[in-house]
Model the fold of this input.
Amino acid sequence: MRLAVLLSGRGSNFASIHEAIAKGRLDAEIAAVISNRADAPGIQRARDWGYDARVIDNRQFPNRAAHESEIRKVLDEARPDIIVMAGYMRLLSATFVAAWMNRIVNIHPSLLPSFPGVDAQAQALAHGVKVTGCTVHFVDEGLDAGPIIVQRTVEVRDDDSVETLSARILEQEHIAYVDALRILAAGNYVIEGRRVRRMK
Ligand code: GAR
Done:
């Protein structure tokens, strides 16, 4: 399974996927890493590890379509089976999503459909939920909305801050993303409406 990773920042989810592949826990290959930010620590890690790492800065394009068309050129070369959004903080257009239907995955730091959008961990604390977590899902044209592949839960503690809660969710994200990609690599699943079901 060939992967293209899209990121905007730290890249810890990308790092955990890289490590899973390196240690033989995930049968996949990272064919390209694309960041929309030149200063993303994740793109530096990608270079250090010898990946084809590209910065395609959205601020240098007049609109979303022009930016995405540049991304699509890299993807056409890299020929990924799956596009992995790993902290990629830009919405993909409906046209882009349609071109890669059921082949783009994202991770979000809440139990969707609760708390989509930005600052999901702060939203969870503000709402007072006792359990939150993370979700790996296929990307559709909605915001953090497509069919769910894997979720992992995290208990909210009385003394949690956004930072402490985010850190515990992140540990679970790293497990969840690799688990989800292992399901996709095995190919033994079906998408039926919103449900992603594993076949025995
Ligand atoms: C992760 O917590 C991820 O769930 C979140 O950004 C962080 C990226 O961390 N993504 C979103 O909020 C997307 N809506 P990372 O760069 O260390 O992987």
Observations:
- Residues 121 and 166 are 6 Å apart (CA to CA).
- Residues 1-100 form a domain with the Rossmann fold fold (CATH 3.40.50.170).
- The radius of gyration is 16 Å.
